[in-house]
Write a structure and sequence with these properties.
alpha/beta, Rossmann fold, N-(1-d-carboxylethyl)-l-norvaline Dehydrogenase, domain 2, 2 domains, 8-stranded mixed beta sheet, two-stranded antiparallel ribbon, 16 helices, binds 1,4-dihydronicotinamide adenine dinucleotide, binds 1,3-dihydroxyacetonephosphate
């Protein structure tokens, strides 16, 4: 491998794309960032700041922004795609003429496509047929990365070259990159936790306490694991940064857009109003709908996702939903230790008078 700096292309001019572009440049890579808006690109090149999505933070001046896809992709070894899920496939299609088999393509997007319940790396695979494909996910609030707060992420791919080159490209003094070969689990964790961040924001706005938040996060993890198992993913991945790590940060921080949408809803704002006020993407709103439908179709028990769906889309008051959830069927703490069905069976027996003194 040559000593030339790695060439990195970042597709997306939002907060995360901008933060990642700056990390790669801090690390010595030659970085080009693609964004739709030529004026914003010119402003980034002039002022070394992204005033629309990451105001108040300096971007490494070596990052070159452009609205010309060909210019950005030419010669790139690593392509990071940081585009919201709704536009992800469209942008990959725009990029396709300048992508080639030797490149490493990595999604950084934590969302799901409605048609076929596809994750973003599956879209990368479908649109290109390439083999160096991966996903970055973890507790990665873009504004904290922009402040160079110590942060860790996961690069997940079954391709060792992809994992290694991403660790080399992005790993630095303030950003540590761990490897995983469970691409599906890592990507699913990043998408699912957004649902529960909305619930945590809502609970905070309703004045609920730390016990509540802790219960919510832990039960969310149980639900995520159950869902993952039903889709054939490895639930152990959720014990890592892209599972419990991301769940903790997104359910605890006002910097999370999903948390903020939940908080606004908890304050009594309507869903459209909450999204409008945010002005950025909160993937969880759409993910709740998709996951709730998928859980129903697969017969997976997901009371939090179901309850949240009813609050967001069917007008059930959040407090009323919280009460119903608290009074829901008796369950098990860790289902891999004591299966939920065993708890329910024991209840049925006792209720039928069997085993009572
Ligand atoms: N911001 C964060 O802290 C983190 C975000 N992510 C994920 O990164 C993904 C991207 O999010 P952000 O950069 O935060 O989003 P953002 O909301 O800050 O910006 C979205 C960007 O996508 C662009 N965009 C939207 N539709 C487009 C289209 N049709 N064509 C071209 N560009 C389009 C917008 O112009 C904007 O530049 C999301 O899925 C999010 O879950 C992951 C980790 C952290
Ligand atoms: O994924 C994130 C942090 O890891 C960012 O969360 P939000 O999309 O809710 O801001």
């Amino acid at each position: 491998m040559s000593d030339d700096p790695m060439r990195v292309a970042v597709l997306g001019g939002g907060s995360f794309g901008t933060a990642l572009a700056s990390i790669a440049a801090d690390n010595g890579a030659k970085v080009c960032q693609w964004l739709r808006d030529p004026e914003l690109a010119a402003q980034i090149n002039r002022e070394h700041c992204n005033p629309r999505y990451l105001p108040d933070y300096a971007i490494n001046p070596a990052v070159r922004a452009s609205s010309n896809m060909q210019e950005v992709l030419e010669g790139a070894e690593l392509v990071l795609v940081a585009i919201p899920s709704k536009a992800f496939r469209d942008v990959v299609r725009q990029a396709r003429p300048w992508l080639h088999e030797e490149q490493i393509l990595v999604s950084t997007t934590k969302g799901i496509q409605e048609e076929g319940f596809k994750l973003m790396s599956q879209i990368l695979e479908e649109e290109t047929g390439f083999s160096h494909i991966g996903v970055i996910s973890g507790p990665n609030l873009a504004t904290e990365i922009a402040q160079k707060q110590l942060t860790a992420t996961v690069i997940a791919s079954d391709d060792a070259l992809t994992r290694t080159r991403v660790q080399q490209a992005l790993g630095c003094d303030y950003f540590r990159v761990y490897a995983s070969n469970d691409r599906y689990g890592v990507e699913l964790g990043g998408a699912l936790k957004n649902i529960y961040a909305i619930a945590a924001g809502m609970a905070a706005a309703l004045g609920m306490g730390e016990n509540t938040r802790s219960m919510l996060m832990t039960r969310a993890l149980a639900e995520m694991g159950r869902f993952a198992v039903s889709l054939g993913a490895n639930p152990m991945t959720f014990l890592g940064l892209a599972g419990v790590g991301d769940l903790i940060v997104t359910c605890s921080s006002q910097l999370s857009r999903n948390y903020r949408v939940g908080y606004a809803l908890g304050q009594g704002k309507g869903l459209d109003e909450a999204i409008e006020a945010l002005g950025q993407v909160a993937e969880g709103v759409n993910t709740i709908r998709l996951v709730r439908d998928k859980a129903r179709a697969e017969g997976v028990y997901m009371p939090l996702a179901e309850g949240l769906y009813q609050v967001l889309f069917e007008g059930v008051p959040a407090r009323e939903m919280a009460r119903m959830l608290m009074r829901g069927e008796q369950s098990s703490d860790v289902e891999f230790v004591l299966p939920r069905e065993d708890v329910q069976r024991a209840h049925r027996r006792v209720e039928a008078g069997e085993g009572k003194p």
